[in-house]
TrEMBL record:
Keywords, sorted A to Z: Signal
Keyword Signal: yes
InterPro entries, A to Z: Beta-barrel_OMP_2 (IPR025665)
Signal sequence segment: 1-20
Upper classification of the organism: Bacteria, Pseudomonadati, Bacteroidota, Sphingobacteriia, Sphingobacteriales
Protein name per the record: PorT family protein
Record domain Outer membrane protein beta-barrel: where: 19-187
A Pfam family assignment: OMP_b-brl_2
Length: 208
């Protein structure tokens, strides 16, 4: 955790000298999330992300992008019993993240291809679990809030890891992008294996 925080701080300091050419951006889109070491029957949990960021040039075709992001994550299962009865379980978690990405720009056509990667630290702020269908004597739908504190908490608050992104930005500022969020911290207290986020994202945005 200390290494991640030091990396974030170093990136902010490095970017501070390039404020004269700073541009700003906003992007949003779809998240497809799962967990590592959480079973082979997982399905993609569909959610969303909204990210505001600054682009701070530090060298030709190279910039640092710190930002603040609202990220929807989680996972989903569906169990089918002989094609007659089944149950769907889903976990939806909202997290506030602070990513700092190093971005390389490659001029191409009417814009630039960009490649980026960097650390993030996130704070899980809310979450729900839902069960729907037929499971033994249960038949119906119910949901409950996740607990992020106390001895019986369902999930840890801190989430940290690495971002990877690829996209294309037109000269008018419009951009499209895809990304991968690789969680590295333990989400589930007292779990035998490291359960962490694995999230694909796809979106559009504008940089001005």
């Amino acid at each position: 955790m200390k290494k991640i925080l030091l990396s974030l701080g170093a990136a902010f300091l490095l970017a501070a000298g390039a404020q004269a050419q700073t541009s700003w951006g906003l992007k949003a889109g779809v998240n497809l999330g799962k967990y590592s070491n959480f079973g082979d029957d997982q399905k993609n949990n569909t959610s969303f992300h909204v990210t505001g960021f600054a682009d701070l040039p530090v060298a030709p075709n190279f910039s640092i992008q710190p930002g603040v992001s609202l990220q929807g994550k989680g996972t989903r299962f569906y169990e089918d019993y002989d094609g007659i009865a089944g149950a769907e379980f889903s976990r939806n978690v909202m997290s506030i993240e602070v990513p700092v990405n190093a971005v390389y720009w490659i001029p191409a056509g009417t814009g630039s291809v960009f490649l980026g990667a960097g650390p993030y630290i996130g704070f899980n702020v809310s979450g729900k679990e839902k069960l729907k269908g037929n499971l033994g004597d249960y038949n119906g739908e119910t949901e409950w809030d996740l607990n992020f504190s106390g001895d019986n908490k369902d999930m840890n608050v801190i989430d940290a890891g690495a971002n990877f992104m690829l996209g294309y930005k037109l000269y008018n500022g419009l951009l499209i992008n895809a990304g991968y969020n690789l969680g590295l911290t333990q989400l589930v207290p007292n779990a035998d294996n490291n359960v962490s986020n694995r999230v694909w994202s796809f979106g559009v945005g504008f940089q001005f």
